[in-house]
Fold each of these.
Amino acid sequence: MMKKNHITELIPEYLDGLLSESKKEEVRLHLKECELCLKELEEYKTIFNAFEEEKEVIPSERIRTNFFEQIEIEKQKKSKVVPLITSTSKKEKTFSYLLKVAASILLLVGGYSLGNYQQEQKGNYKIAQLQEKTQKIKQTAMLSLIGNKSASKRIQGVNYIDEFSNPDEAIVAALVDRMLYDENTNVRLTAVEALSNFITSEEVKNAFIKALKIEKAPAIQIIIIQVLVKIQEKKAIIPMKKLLEQNETQPFIKEQIKSSIINIV
Amino acid sequence: MKKIILFIVFATIVKLTAIAQDYHQSLEGIEWVKIESKSSIIVKAYDKNELLIKAGNRGKINEKTKGLRLVGEDGTDNTNIGFYVIKEGNNLIVRNLKKNEHAIIYLPASQNISVKTTWHGDINIFNFTSEIEAAAELNGSVAIKDVTGPITANSLNGEVQVSFSKVSQKSPITIYSTNGELEISLPKNTPADLSLYSTNGDIYTNFDISTPSKKGMKSVSSKKIKGTINKGGVNIKLNTTNGNIYLRKR
């Protein structure tokens, strides 16, 4: 009997392990052949899992009233309700009644879970949007701090770099600008340290070479040299040799250059 | 009697010249006072809402300069006491034109100040609750006492001393010296995120710095010390190339 018909109505019992061995076997065989029923089974599983996970759902007041209203409406339209199982033997009557109840509960819970799921999806999308927005706000805050009159605020702005895992061009350009041209040495020093984490970028590398040519503060020179030597940057050799020739270059900078220039091959 | 009259006359003259040695300037609409000097400078907080400069060598007038005006590379004396003072937007630029005379500048405690000395000038700053920037660009030292910050200070060869009466949590504090030592004291209950680093110098402190641990192991050998005191707070970064760093509880 079951071979021709689909076994969708048996799936809940099947999943709950309530079927007799022979019926179980029938269902199993049918599932092997019938994709439709297999799909149905998967859906039931999902719903069951949701049922399992959704331990204590307290519906909102609005849903509750809607629910009772819907029941009232359904009661009035009772005749129009399509029975889930159309042709069943008497033997299965009580069973089919139970199934109807189970199915309606499942539909209700399933509908609710689906709604929840969609809400969650929407929520996730909103979170993504929000994250993007916060990132934008952070960027604006950072750029505005970097343009502040106070050196301490500019440093705060430069330190914001930690908030960005993948800073975009505008941020890198703003940091490079501070590293090269800020009037305050502490700000330039902070910018050099912040940018040294992105030294693999060609733009940052070139900015470091430029800084090596124009920077006068030894505390910054030494960091630039250490960073460029670490990545074996050949373009750093000429500006380093120039620093060696200059009288005003601090002795310890010259020492550093002499000991590290041989390491660049 | 004659002697007394003579003394009074003399005292009045001294007083008059002393007054002539003071310079007052309103601070209305001024956000930052930027002081530049080649020689040493002392900046003190007082309770009036204006700038007051008391030039060095008070009461002594160089006869040879009578009728002449001091001209320097950075401007002309427009105060009669060897300073060039000018408003630039909401900054007040205050330049000491004399290369070898120190001066005392008084400002309200809440005034943001930026002080820079080139050449041998030492910077001394006392009792401010505002934001302070200080840079001794050549051989001068920096001493900033009884302040709250934020502080942004650096020196090339001189030492830098900063003692905080309280630490403002507003924005970062960064202090560094290339060849000088750092001597910093904070109230013992100051919450802060510390970053201490010295290329060739040593670091000493009596604060208990909690360093982030990796898999339960504390990093002790790193040249860079990063950690928190009193559960963390404002960023404080102390950095030297060749000098030692001393961080004390006050």
Amino acid sequence: MQRLDQEAHDITTPLTSTSQFIEADDDDLDEESIPGFTHPGLVQSPHSPVPDKGKGRAPEQLAPPSASAAVSGNIGTPVNGSGAPPSNRRSVGGVRVETRYTGTDTLDEPITTTIGRDLLSIYTKLIQVLYPPRNRGNRDLLRDWDLWGPLVLCLMLGILLSMNAPASQSLSVFTSVVVIIALGSLVVTVQAKLLGGRVSFFQGLCVLGYCVAPLNVAALVSTFVHLIYVRAPVALAAWAWCIWASVNFLDGTKIEHQRILLAVYPLLLFYFVLAWMIIIQ
Amino acid sequence: MAYVQIEADERMEEGPERLQFQSFLGTDARQANQESTASRGYFSDRPKSSGFWQLEYYQPYFDVDTKMVIKRCYTTLLPHTSNYLSAHLTPSADLYGPFWTLTTLIFALFLSSSLASSIAAYLTDPKNSSAAVLEYDFGLLSTAVALVYSYGIGVPVVLWLALRYMGVGEWSVIEAVAVWGYGMFVWIPVAFLNINPFPLARWILTGIAFLVSGWFLVANVYPVLATADAKPVRLIIILLVALHVVVAFCFQVLFFGYYPLKELGPKDPIPPPQATATGKP
């Protein structure tokens, strides 16, 4: 039913407003609507024959006015008059580039500001993934995926578990945690795509990686509390939290109703193995 | 000399016929799904032709819903499912079930063997509460991965290739993998039941699982072998049964053997599993 509704909606929507439905990996942005920033001479340079390659490249590097105009146009001002989109794609010198407007001039800021902004973006994504009802309408944040957060969380869980493991097992525990998280989130994402879900590949990896965070908390708790009566409920609660957060994400991928269980089951398995490793360590 | 030349000519004529291009990867599955998905509407916007390197190529093999997968799983337990391929794998075999059956089996083996060894250690020494938390050999996890995947995916693919080389068999490689993957389903409940602390019961349960899955494999693979013109091809079934015995024995010894009991030794109220080794069917 959801799918039918979606199709009907698409049919009734006029063509001119399709640019509002910004999909995650949408490659067919209408490039004609973006004002041309490319120098005519630069666009032709890839088409030049091979012996002229050196000559064709020379103007590409020696065309400061048009190039700098494009760059400053990128950073300083929003391109479309109707509000700044999160990402813009255009071709500069025949090469497609994607730029993000961050709101400030990022060229000559101190490096602490840059790192702080990245950490802040990881933090806001973490909050949104772990507590979806907080900003329900604002799913666009996840479109700006990164893999740094998942990497940090995965390594943190591996280190926590291998610290608790006996010395002879610590290396294999670390290896299996990292391999399970990497391969597991890969397989689950590919599998959601194969079941017909509309999900961007890296966005899925990003969300599944951020959903490991509650298990990190459980591992941290079980580092200090060794009672099995405390560790097992904490790990199971973290597992339930992981499932809740990731199912919330899967809700948006428009998988069919009869097969949503097929897409959720691998998630249950994936996170339960990690929770189990926390319990028995 | 002339006779030899004629024979050579015949071979030349035969050559190009044998070297025709054929699609081995389940043409029937893809064609059957073309019609069924059109009615179900899961993949309405799928491109008509896609290469095997694209994800859309594999979507027909994941075109199942929850009820179908569950039905395919539990029908392997019934002894009278002799024509599983034609009766239950319709309209086409899938890859979702086999893959997740095998993966679930790996984690079931991991979970049951780790939990059972904790219980065994607790029964050995109930006074010592820290005995419940013991060193689990994480090498067993990678052993389980290698054993289950190589048996559940490697063996059918090799068998299919060998049969294809001999020109036997009207099945696709997807169907071969599906038979093995769904056939291993019985081991999942048995792995959980084998947490019980009685070695004789564990051996009996393993024997039951061996008989059920072995009967399922024989009943579904032997008709394919029987279509061969050469009678000796049918002897392959003996090889397959021998392989199945080896795998069942590996499961019992590696994962249901409660290896810590040997280390904890004399205070053990339960005899080690080797004492009942003759009870193996």
Amino acid sequence: MSTFLEAVVRGLGTGSVYALLALGFVIIYKATSVISFAQPALMLSGAVVTSYLVPAMGVLLFTGFSFFFSVAIAAIITAALALLIERLAIRPMVGKAVFVVAIITLGIDIAVRVVVNGFIGLGARPIGFPWGLDRVTVLGLDVQIRHLVMMGTVALVITALYFFFQRSKYGLAMRAAALDQEAAMTMGVSVGGVFALSWAIAGGLAAIAGSLLATGAGVDRQLWIVALVALPAIILGGLDSLEGAVIGGLLIGVAEALVGTYQRQYAPWLGDNVALVAPYALMLAVLLVRPYGIFGTAEVRRV
Amino acid sequence: MSTTTTTTGAPKTPRTPTPKRSLPGTARVSTKVSGRPGFYRSYSQELALFNTRPKQVAVAAVVLLGLLGPFVLEDALLRTLAIAFVFAIGALGLNIVTGLAGQVSLGHAFFLGVGAYTAAAISGDPEGRTIGFGIEEMWIWLPASGLVAAAFGVAVAPLATRLRGLYLAIVTLGLVFIGEHVFREWSDLTGGAGVGRSAATPQLFGFDFSEGTEMFSREQQLYLLMFVLMLIFALGARNLARSRVGRAFSAVRDRDMAAEMMSIDLPRTKALAFGISSFYAGCAGGLLYTVSGFFDPASFNLLLSVQFIAMVLIGGAGTVGGTIAGALFVSLLPTLTRELPAFIPLISQQVTETPNVFQVEQILYGLLIVVFLLFEPRGLFGIWMRIRIYWKSWPFSY
């Protein structure tokens, strides 16, 4: 039983980071109806910025302060990078076919990642997470501190996002633009500004997610693949649902952890590292039953 | 009303059509092309395979140039070009499903892998370390690799009929990851990650193209083989585009609902598009590694899919000539970037130094996709069209 529960906690930890990544995808999708394949590059650059900032800052105030402070700064820097990308490559394509814009983001992803890889070097860069892989016993369960930190940070960020969308002027503008761009425009909402803001938020979220993911093994060149796991998460939850993104992310995380724990025991013929593809298999299974995800709205076709 | 016009109008002289200038739709349509270029006088002429004289001449010239290649170029370049021709076959496949039928597929690498392993398994050594059936004849393993890949394509198609646009893109992306995993783990077939297996033998009626003879070197033979195969596949793709099926694909791409209203069976059309596209991908996969003779399961990753997308988009989506041009362009890009350090001293040849040729090459992939989509969405084909229109209407360029 405790093996099971520990796997669930581990899954919820990584799953909450997937949720963060998925939120980035969904926020951009809701604003611009484009899936940004540039998220992996943004995530990687956020993690790299953090890995450079933490040692530069040294130990400040209390344990972990310099890490969290660096993550916050990295989020801002990455948000600025995302803004730049949006301005240069995405804004000129407003009104073009979504597929074309999605492929543009794919091209940007490749280009940015190569540049970021240059800063990583060949091996893994330590990110300066103070607790490393240390474990702690909570309620009789042996869990890694980093998974608890992931859950805590993500809960905080999601709460902040909730208040931003529900209470702030800009959040209202973004919701309005997502609902109906033209109507929002007539009400004085700057739709271009909403596009930029959505990219900035997604960039910031990706940076936080990247830094959290790298707490275990550090930043290496393969880290970006993890960001794509958020794609099954958003498909599972539905492309246009923020709640769906969070729930989908958590589900994917738990499914991955459970497969990783039990597959060797019950289905060894599947081979090693099945956990890595479990999210995609789960996605295919869900799509066969519900083509628009669990929480997504079905597309209305008008004749 | 009609009677008044005839009586008040100018005296009518019956015009008999001269034999040379018959009206469209009449029985006497000359298939000979003459007079003003780009002016079609019948539907059959518009749908003809090579519908204008310049096109006929251009295609003949390109084929001649291609056949001359092995006698002028160096072996290293011939090898690159042979691989580029195989890539062109794969890109033509992606062009059918994405350019022609409008279904976004990021899963092309998966179908390529299926084809590569089918071909390698059929032609492989039965006594060897990996699965092999020892049938080395290409006319068996090449269609077989295409057909197995096509079967997978048709199996995926039901998802395509349920999903649209970006949902489909993500699902096909998932296919690449699952495929990569299976290829890595099924070491009896693939040799396992980091080890790989030998590829299919390009042997046709007892003649092995991968072994040099007194007359031709290995590279010259492979170049010619791949060039001819590419021509066959290109002709097939061009023919498909003008057929009933191909026009149904375009109708689905332009507006699937309108196509449905015109009684085009959407599930069937999409399944066909995926099937044919995967057939091309499977054949390309089977052929691709015969040049190098060896391949690793890690080859069939997302980057390969993106490369194919880059080929189609840089070349010009929906066009056969453009796609081939794009495939050649993308495949020759590494050869071009290798030359860069001679001109820009900042870029290093070494992998360990930061601005090196490999990084530049990858950045160029990304940036070229972006730049082409931003400034010339029709790709190389679009640039060609603009040049053509400029000279056609010169000096009245408006």
Amino acid sequence: MVYELRNITKTFEQRTVLNLERLSVKKGKILGLLGPNGAGKTTLLEIMAFLSSPTSGGMWFNQQKVDFTGGKLKDLRRRVVLVQQDSILFSTSVSNNVDFPLRIRKAPKAKREQIVGELLDMVGMRDFGHAPAHKLSSGETQRVAIARALACFPEVILLDEPTANVDVENQIAIERIIREINRTKGISVVFTTHNMIQASRLADETVFLYEGKVARSIYENIFSGRIQTDESGRQLCVAQNGLRLHVQHDKSGPVRISIDPAIVEISRNGNEFSEDNTFKGRLIQLTDEQGRVRALVDVGVPLSVLIPKEVFRSLGLGIGDDVWLNCPAKSIEIF
Amino acid sequence: MDFLIDGLLSALLLIWSLDPGLIEIVWVSLKVSSTSTLIASLVGVPAGFLIAFGEFSGKRFVITLLNTLLALPTVAVGLLVYTFICRRGIFGGFDLLYTQKAIIIGQVILIIPIVATFTISAVSRLDDRYRKTALTVGANAIQTAWVIVREVRFGIAAAIIAAFGRVIAEVGISMMLGGNAKGFTRTMTTAMALEYDKGLFELSVALGIALLAVSFAVNVFFHYFQGRVRE
């Protein structure tokens, strides 16, 4: 294990944003941390990058307990690097940014130039070497930030939502780079995302974080809403995005709900389902996912559905098709 | 109106002819002000950094105090320093009164709050991701501070220029601690006050133009440098 975290908590002004019983990262593997905004992903990465200390609990890095109070954090930081969400580049040229970690490690100039060139090649930014860093697009910035991180020759690279706010072309490029650095350089990778599909594409293992804790299952299709009683006296959850779902729960008032995509049923014909929690939508995305097909259906809001391959084949679904979804009570979790 | 035009023409003639008296006064002013700005920057910039990044009790009070000191009257500083360096003062034995060193001491006290406050403001506004990025790629505390200095260099330059502008234009400290001795502690502002008292406006106006020219030149240089870097 490259990381072992036990009973790690982080509290800001009496608010606990992280409360992890146990988490470990295997050497040379890619770990995906999935979770909605506010789940504690960034806080966790900052602790793992030795930039922030936990309020309580212990962390082991390569079997050595990390002393967050001691003066050895700089040495540990030189073995792990964090690429932040919306990375920032220093106000100088692209090459100088990539060169910075090498310069502070006092690498010889000729060697530095060679490494900077190779890394910029790797992220497809060689032609931008002399360009001012602040003139790059967000996708290009992220690629240069990854090159700069690689110039640290880290054992672990931590990426905080590496493809947030970047276009599809850069997203593909960044995912390719992540795979490449893991496979060719053997660097352990931990990345955060709230994109389930991306996590399943990239990660060897995925952990779902919710409200600072490792959730027992991966919550998907998460919506904020309010439980109220409808005219027939039944409990109705009205999500902020307009989705209306009948639920059976003790709670009332504001809640968050999750709809399990593996339990949601899909059909070409709405008559197959009861009226309750049945929605008509249009199929907007299909992804192959470990023996199943993930379909994204626009029912006013995008709902993700996991379909067994045989069901998918029998329905003969294609992008743009009209479909019906039914969310049975057991597919809805309220918290 | 003729009186103003005559004064202005005579002043321009003095500048054009590089009048030795005028040059000497401008030189003393630049020397004293540059030295005090340099010393205040060496103290004020690191102090600003320490205050901005440090977590200590009384931090808010220190910042409030520095902000209050921005409005410090020059005569108050002059009086304070005078009590220390006059013959009966603690440092009376050093014979500092009516020397350029005395002016520099007073001016340094006057502008350290300006440099420190502007630095705190510039550093506090900087996105914390710069600090975290420097740390995560392996920089030590000094290298991280250097990264931040580079990113806020225009803010710090603005602080130093503001401080220089304050000292080159001040009159209270130079008059009280320098004594306006010709060829020695006579600065542009004290000379202007003297010439005004004597009713001789030519030199006074010429010095006013020189003062504006210095200020203009410093600002032009700053904007040119800023523009070059941002290109």
